[in-house]
Amino acid sequence: MLIWQEMAALGYDQTDGNRFVRSHEFTDPFKKIRTSASSDLLGVGAGAYSHVGVKVAKANYRGHVFRNDPNIRTYVDAVLTGNVPIATGRGVDEEELLAGSYATGLRTGRIEDESRRSLRSAHPQLSRYYDALVNELNNAGALEAYLDDSGQAGLRLSSLGKLFEDEALSFFFSPAVKSALATKTTSERKLQLA
Questions:
Q1: Mind listing the pLDDT tens digit for each residue in 104-120?
Q2: Cβ neighbour number for residue 189 with a 10 Å cutoff
Q3: Which of 23-27, 56-60, 94-98 has the highest mean pLDDT?
Q4: Using CA atoms, how far apart are residues 77 and 143, in angstroms rounded to an integer?
Q5: Which domains does the chain show, CATH number per domain?
Q6: What does each C-alpha distance from 57 to 45, 61, 94 come to in angstroms?
């Protein structure tokens, strides 16, 4: 927090996390694409991640997110032999889109638009769970209300919330992602015990 305050005193603006720019012309123009599945991103290279085909139209939610193998040698071998270097991936469904609207939306500013209201009404139990998390984080001072450039009200991480950004946003992972993480952790523990 002291670093953030000192950087502000020196004339720098905090863009997100621990990134600072002297002028907004130096803001990363691709950040909104990388932190949102609403635009396609095809990652090239070892460890690159991608999200493609995620479209919200008339209750038709499709698309995939995937990550290339992070091992450079394995990645190169796959490409040179004509294989796909994807190591992990999953389909994007409505629950994943709803979770992402919080997990990435609160980082950059989450505004409840028509597509998000539609997702929330289609998944009332999950929406109530996320509402409870929002209330808890808001009461703890980790979230704040704001108005975007067009005057729409939204919610985003506060200065306190940014200190615990990854931890706070991980609460909003989808049930499928939480399950996959728990399974992976359990598998890793079993390997360590063997």
A1: 889 888 999 888 899 89
A2: 10
A3: 94-98
A4: 45
A5: 1-30 (no CATH), 35-92 (no CATH), 94-194 (1.10.10)
A6: 31, 7, 11
